[in-house]
Amino acid sequence: MMQVLPIQSSATTNENQSPGRLVVLTGPSGVGKGTLMRSLLQRHPELYYSVSVTTRSPRPGEINGKNYYFISRSKFEQLVAQGEFLEWAEFAGNYYGTPREAVLNQVLSGKLVILEIELEGARQIRASFPGALSIFILPPSFEELEQRIRGRGQDSEEAIVRRLRRAQEEVKAADEFDIKIVNDDFETALKAIEAALFK
């Protein structure tokens, strides 16, 4: 059972500080969420990026604790049982979750906290925290999305087919979100996210 808290906090540590807010960034696999997120954090180091926990293996160049916390399925299931996640979901055969305590502490301290998560988790956050801002990243076309997923060269054909099937379902959910941004031109998409966060 998820605890429902007002996620736009009135807690402030000084009179100039704005209240914290939770922001959810989602979209289908391969749409470029991670790349957009990295650029956003480089430009705005004041943002708090919540590092997700996952049971999948690290991809080349990924660092434990920076890109994800990589743990075993049994450890993940133990954390679920202990209520340690704000949201969690299974995607492409792996678990993904957002650590609860760190996120809530950052929001309550006045930070803009960004979660880059899968659709199922994003829906959980929307249900638990109706005050959260939700942004859905769309591909310019489904053909382009397939090219991007295949271009990674990291998945088996079976995994690619599964991701593409899932992506078709995810794109249909875009209207559930506050803001939709098409990642056609990277810089344009990034500016649209900045406009949503800092308007």
Overall 3D form:
globular
CATH superfamily: P-loop containing nucleotide triphosphate hydrolases
CATH architecture heading: 3-Layer(aba) Sandwich
Report on the biggest sheet.
Answer: 5 strands, parallel
What is the CATH third-level topology name?
Rossmann fold
Beta-strand percent range: 15-25%
Given helix and strand content, the structural type is alpha/beta
Q: State the total count of DSSP E strands.
A: 9
For this entry, what is the oligomeric state of its chains?
single chain
End-to-end distance, in Å? 34 Å
Give the proportion of residues in helices: 25-40%
The whole-angstrom Rg is 17 Å
CATH class: Alpha Beta
Strand order of the largest sheet: 2-7-1-8-9
Number of domains: 1
Q: What is the tally of helical segments?
A: 7
What order do the helices and strands follow?
EHEEEHEEHEHEHHEH
Residue ranges: pLDDT <50 for 5 or more in a row? 1-16
Q: Report the mean per-residue pLDDT as an integer.
A: 88
Biased composition (Polar residues): 1-19
Protein name: Guanylate kinase
Enzyme class: transferase
GO molecular function: ATP binding; GMP kinase activity
